[in-house]
Amino acid sequence: MIVDLHAHTFYSGCGRDAPEALVLAMIHEGVEVFGITDHDYGIVERREEYVRTVRALAQKYQSKIRLLCGIEIATTPHHCLNATQDYAELDYCLIEHLDSPESVMQGDIVAFTKGFSCPVGIAHTDLFAFIKARNSDPFSYLSSLAQANIFWEMNVNFDSIHGYREHRYVKEFLESREQQQLVRASGIKISVGFDGHRMEDYLVDRVRDMNQRLSEMGITPYIPYAKQ
Ligand SMILES: [Zn+2]
Ligand SMILES: [Zn+2]
Fold this sequence. Notes:
The chain has helices at about 20-30, 40-45, 45-60, 110, 125-135, 140-145, 170-175, 175-185, 205-215, and strands spanning about 5, 35-40, 65-75, 90-95, 120, 150-155, 190-195. By secondary structure, the chain is of the alpha/beta class. The protein has one domain: TIM Barrel (Alpha-Beta Barrel), CATH 3.20.20. It has a 7-stranded parallel β-sheet. β4 (about 90-95), α4 and β5 (about 120) form a beta-alpha-beta unit.
């Protein structure tokens, strides 16, 4: 199963692809479950149109791909929109900047997302370094996230927009049996995302490999429920 829960279209200021062209490209690449997660600060007042567009594509191509409608929420003061928004019509959201001292979450994602009526994921964050920095016990902390229905993203990006940089925490996780065991024991769910902004930069092999590696270590890549 090839699952990718993190992607941007022209609804993000930094994205360029039309949603339908992107979905067709993903079908061509063999992606089976695909989540579009444009930036909330790119969508702003176009939320209704955004959701309608993604839902229509989900229906149009339902025999070829399972398309999910998510959103990526920025939490630094510079980018942060109204934090009390309702995300009920979305299948899930990804949250950025948990480990930033500037984040309006102030390190407490459980409190911040308490009223959210969709699953919440932690985007591209070195969660083990974050846990260490706050002197928490990894097992207890991961368990508390699992209980709050918060999942953690393995971000496999490598593209021009991000300067062809890989996330080191992902490599560390793949090499650390201890971290893998803590994830399994705590029950926290793990998602896979490429975080693409340009479809010509998409590397499906990285997505496929991560899905496979997780499965091999007994962790099922997370797929949110589609609300339609
Ligand atoms: Zn992001
Ligand atoms: Zn992103």
